[in-house]
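User: Um, what's this?
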Amino acid sequence: GWYSGSFDDLATFLTDTHNSFPTKGFALSEYGAGASIHQHEAHPAQPETTSKFHPEEWQALSHEAYWQALQQRPYVWGKFVWSMFDFASAGRDEGDQKGRNDKGLCTYDRKTCKDAYYWYKANWTTEPFVYITSRRFDTRTEASTDIKVYANTSVVTLILNGVSLGKKSSSNHIFLWEGVALQAGSNIVEIVGTQGNETCNDVVTWNVQ
């Protein structure tokens, strides 16, 4: 799904491998996709792997598909993300940095976790958690946008510029509001997650030019 094919192909690959060896478990030694925290696209198309443009949103979509395929197949006993951090790779000249493999869930300097990192956190943490994706896509030219949230709470409420846009529930930790109208200038996007008597929130500011 990175160098060839689609990230959705992983599910078929796993099933076909299992059908070929039905009495054996197996591990996936590496899976992932490149991403820059400085590059964004509202509706990302699959990037050229050798290009200078590796939008963060495409990596997130890839890991959403990867993990949902993997968690449904217990015969895959090992799943190894490639990789936790961006790392030096002298022969590469792609993405936003020459000499770097950008498939990490976190940046090279270990200071910034990419959206895909928080996708796994939503799936794995037990503490109530919400996270607004595409948060670094903070300067926009289109007023209409999808707002996607990763969360492990049962209910999530979206609040835009102080006005509630309603609650959503999800069975896969992805909460999506499509075609939300932003105002010109500054927009405060807040998410509140509810789990029993506990709540948690996340806030970002996006600007429409």
User: Anything to note?
Assistant: The two ends are 34 Å apart (CA to CA). The chain has a mean pLDDT of 97.
